[in-house]
Design brief:
Number of helices of chain A: 8
Strand order of the largest sheet of chain A: 6-7-8-3-9-10
Low-confidence stretches of chain B: none
Largest sheet of chain A: 6 strands, mixed
Distance between the termini of chain B: 25 Å
Radius of gyration of chain A: 19 Å
Strand content of chain A: 25-35%
Helix content of chain B: over 70%
Number of strands of chain B: 0
Largest interface: A-B, 26 and 22 residues
Order of helices and strands of chain A: HEEEHEEEHHHEHEHEEH
Oligomer: heterodimer
Number of strands of chain A: 10
Shape of chain B: globular
Low-confidence stretches of chain A: 1-15
Mean pLDDT of chain B: 88
Helix content of chain A: 25-40%
Order of helices and strands of chain B: HHHHHHHHHHHHH
Chain lengths: ~270, ~270
């Protein structure tokens, strides 16, 4: 176990470092019959390196659309996204996505799924195997390496999906309600697991959710989206210690505040 | 344990129930003399004719010793026609499944041609290619093309866009996306298309060989009809059924051997 884990270099998260992601007056309009549907009207925000951002909003407020634009899956109608000063246009391994459904390749085993992004990069076979084993250990799936995705539970599938992207060491991790379909207990476990990995790797996270408790548990900063206007309605920094956040006295105050904000914005 | 054993026993015997019943019925019909011998010879007569046809030496009896030559000629024609159909139908199907313009372009022509019965193409093929292997291969290829093309197109079209997005985000290029994601994800449809194509290839083989070629399984059936040898007709039919089923099994096994996706998802 130890030798496997030591393969992965530890990058301490230097939170609130320089700005890594710049989103400037993003606008996304979809044609809907004869008229148009404005999903994102004018969205701008910056993200610092290593920051954990939650995008919170009711369903249909455009948070998933925003994530798809950031990932490069769909182009914005206007506006720009810069990562490290380079404009984002296409999907790339520096902005990896964990989808709501697992999106694993059903014909590949857990091990092959995790190794998928490393193939064709001229890496040695042994190096790839070691790397994959290390990441499987990290998400606690060593014993399931040769299983097929359909043989795994929902939580395990999402852990494979996490390992599959973390192995590429993305700058930014985009997560689209990844734990929404899990039961409450598994969801809490996965949240803790995600935080552990985040502390270890120090990547920047944009996490889309409609769950206020999840947002307060995970985020450094919560961006609340307004469905009617297609903008960011409010920004809330969470100043709580990472350890045992859910049990903190202030936790309830933050969640109440966010629920109030969500009620206010239509 | 006991129930598992019973289950596997059932799986082994169930496919033989109908052939067995049919044989029993046939024996009963011919024993009672309900149907005259020249319309439906008894199973023993068929067995004798089949034995002479397959194992006999030339000169022992009419049709004796021709089997290997007929079989290889027919297999070669089916093989050529089927390979042509795969070579054109598979890539075209994948492209038209993914590119809307190509699908619209092909739509009218393919569906109109599909409605033309193969027998009406026979005279035209004979005018174009004369009597011989070219006509048969042309007919077989024409017939096998449609199920292969249509099923592949449907499969390629129904591939979950999430899987392709996941591939793009993992940094996969165009070629690997096609061969590593698109084709495996459409594999079950592709297998269906290939199996249907191969089945119909055997059907059209007989049609192609009716045109008066000297050898082939279809040719002896036609020849036997002219000479009133009902037993040889039935022997030919049974051989085509057996060989057709055997090639179907071989095709499935080959696909399972060559493609992980065929092995793990079917």
């Amino acid at each position: 176990m130890k030798s496997q884990a030591s393969v992965i270099p530890i990058t301490r998260s230097s939170r609130h470092g320089e700005t890594i992601l710049e989103v400037n007056s993003l606008r996304k309009v979809f044609p809907a019959g004869r008229s148009f549907l404005t999903v994102l009207a004018d969205v701008s925000f910056n993200v610092a390196r290593g920051e954990f951002i939650c995008l919170l909003g009711r369903s249909g407020c455009g948070k998933s659309t925003l994530l798809k634009v950031l990932a490069g899956f769909i182009p914005p109608t206007s506006g720009t996204v810069f990562l490290h000063g380079r404009q984002v246009a296409k999907p790339s391994p520096d902005r990896c996505v964990v989808f709501q459904e697992d999106a694993l390749f059903p014909w590949l085993t857990v091990r092959e799924n995790v190794a998928f992004g490393l193939k064709g990069k001229g890496l040695e076979r042994r190096a790839v195997e070691q790397e994959v084993d290390g990441f499987l250990a990290l998400v606690g799936l060593n014993d399931f390496a040769d299983y097929l995705p359909r043989q795994l539970s929902g939580g395990m599938k999402q852990r494979v999906a996490l390992a599959r992207v973390l192995i590429l060491r993305p700058e930014v991790l985009l997560m689209d309600e990844p734990f929404a379909s899990l039961d409450a207990l598994t969801r809490e476990e996965m949240q803790n697991h995600l935080l552990m990995l985040w502390e270890r790797f120090g990547h920047t996270v944009l996490f889309v959710t409609h769950d206020v408790h999840e947002a307060v548990t995970l985020a450094d900063r919560v961006l609340v989206m307004n469905r009617a206007l297609g903008t960011i309605h409010e920004e809330l920094e969470i100043h709580l210690p990472r350890q045992c956040r859910r049990d903190h006295d202030e936790f309830l105050r933050y969640t109440r505040r966010l629920i109030k904000v969500l009620r206010e914005c239509p | 344990m006991e129930s598992e054993r019973r289950h596997s026993l059932l799986c082994a015997w169930l496919p033989w129930v109908f052939p067995g019943l049919l044989l029993l019925l046939w024996v009963m019909v011919s024993e009672t003399g309900l149907v005259p011998e020249y319309l439906l010879p008894s199973p023993t007569a068929i067995g004798r004719a089949g034995y002479h046809y397959i194992f006999g030496r030339i000169g022992d009896a009419p049709y004796a010793g021709r089997f290997l030559k007929d079989l290889s000629a027919s297999m070669f024609r089916v093989g050529c026609g089927f390979c042509c159909a795969v070579a054109i139908g598979l890539p075209l199907g994948i492209i038209s499944g993914r590119v809307t313009a190509v699908r619209l372009l092909m739509g009218n022509s393919v569906n109109a041609l599909r409605a033309v019965p193969g027998i009406s193409l026979l005279p035209l093929a004979m005018v174009w290619f004369g009597i011989g292997i070219k006509t048969t291969v042309f007919l077989v290829a024409m017939a096998a093309f449609f199920p292969i093309y249509l099923n592949t197109a449907a499969g390629a079209r129904q591939v979950d866009p999430l899987l392709l997005q996941a591939g793009a985000m993992l940094g996969v290029g165009r070629w690997r996306s096609a061969f590593g994601i698109l084709i495996p994800a459409a594999m079950s449809h592709i297998i269906t298309g290939l199996r249907l194509g191969l089945g119909i290839a055997w059907a059209y083989l007989v049609l192609g060989e009716l045109s008066g070629v000297p050898d082939g399984l279809g040719a002896i059936i036609m020849d036997a009809r002219m000479l009133g040898r009902t037993d040889i007709i039935i022997v030919g039919i049974i051989i085509i059924a057996v060989v057709g089923r055997a090639t179907d099994r071989t095709l499935c096994s080959c696909l399972r051997l060559c493609f992980r996706s065929a092995h793990r998802m079917a």
